[in-house]
Amino acid sequence: MPEPITTPIVRRRVNIIFNPANAKGWYWTRKDIEDFLNALSFVFPSGEKFFIQSVQHYQNRITDPALKDQVKRFIYQEAMHTKEHSRCNEALYDAHPYGHDIEKFTARMMALNRLIFPKSWQLASTCALEHFTAIVADALLRIQETFIAESDPAFASLWLWHAVEEAEHKGVCFDVYQTMFGEGVVSYLRRVNVMFWITVGFLVLTFISSRLVKKGEKARHHTTGEPAGAPSSKSGTRHLLKEIVSLKLYFDYYRPSFHPWDHDNRDHIEEWKRRYRNFGAGPDAPLEATA
Predict the structure, then answer these.
(1) Whose CA is closest to 86, among 53, 55, 56, 43?
(2) Which residues contact 24 (CB under 8 A, 6 or more apart)?
(3) Within 225-285, where are the H helices?
(4) pLDDT tens figures, 138-156
(5) Do 180 and 71 contact (CB within 8 A), yes or no?
(6) 183/89 Cα distance (integer angstroms)
(7) Calculated CA dihedral for residues 191, 196, 197, 201, nearest 10 degrees
(8) How many CB atoms are closer than 10 A to CB 63?
């Protein structure tokens, strides 16, 4: 039997300095992707906290030392994502006046999930949402050279760092879920049923958040007379999701034998590490790519 694929889950200390003046157009060639990622940034603080809490509930019941360590590293990475996206959002508020509304709406959705659904459903929800973040992360890591060349360095470093860590820990929640509930029929049916409903919620949240980002931009352009910004190669959220979210990777989740590391993208992780040497190792870690 082949050894399971794995990659180190690295604890990085990150403190990116965002310039609010650059928040009005930080991805110079793809305004549609910028709007989508800005919308996700407003969603992430509440979402990441939900991920952490859903895994922490089972943390003390895990006996495997390797998985226990991976869970601790997962929680560290997600907590750092929460901190940095909150700081990023501070820089985005002036450019995106509806950012607070997106954050409040997301927080209510997460609170409703905690209130209504059992802990097993919440963990399965986190597995499903982590699958979405892994897919988006993979899409960004595949274009990292272009993304770096065409974006403000601070925002590029934020998103590529976040993407690489989502790739590093993409199997942790899934492994916790299978450790707690096994790989039988009941566990599988819960997992795919939750994914179906999470997909509906993800699409609704993405649509609403993206519309609010664009609405805020239109209001700002109307008030200030600023230009609309960079062009978009596609029109509408639906086209963008088709570009970013691989349907092959998405539907792979419904296989009974699925595991997140069935899709091995360690080469993209290593490419990022070569570009951002020592990123997050300390206060003097580079933001800009070195190659």
Answers:
(1) 43
(2) 95, 226, 229
(3) 237-244, 247-252, 266-275
(4) 999 999 999 999 999 999 9
(5) no
(6) 39
(7) 120
(8) 8
Span between the terminal Cα atoms of the chain, in Å: 38
CB-based contact 192:174 (threshold 8 Å): no
Amino acid found at 165? E
Q: Are 130 and 52 in contact (CB under 8 A)?
A: no
Give per-residue pLDDT as tens, 159-179.
999 999 999 999 999 999 999
How high is the mean pLDDT in each 10-residue block of the chain (291 residues)?
74 93 92 93 96 97 96 97 96 92 94 94 97 96 96 96 97 97 96 96 90 78 54 58 85 96 96 91 70 58
pLDDT at 20: 92
Report the candidate in 217, 187, 198 with the shortest Cα–Cα distance to residue 133.
198
E-assigned strands of the chain? Answer: none
Instruction: State the CB neighbour count (10 A cutoff) for residue 11.
Output: 12
CA-closest candidate to residue 128, choices 275, 252, 238, 237: 252
The alpha carbon torsion through 48, 193, 122, 117 (nearest 10 deg) reads 130
The DSSP secondary structure of 23-45, one letter per residue, reads TTSSBSS-HHHHHHHHHHHHHHH
Rounded Cα distance between 62 and 152, Å, is 41
Structural element, H or E, at residue 126: helix 119-142
Torsion of CA 199, 205, 211, 215, to 10 degrees: -170
pTM over 0.70: yes
Distance CA 286, CA 17 (A): 11
Half-sphere exposure of 103 (CA within 13 A, CB side): 18
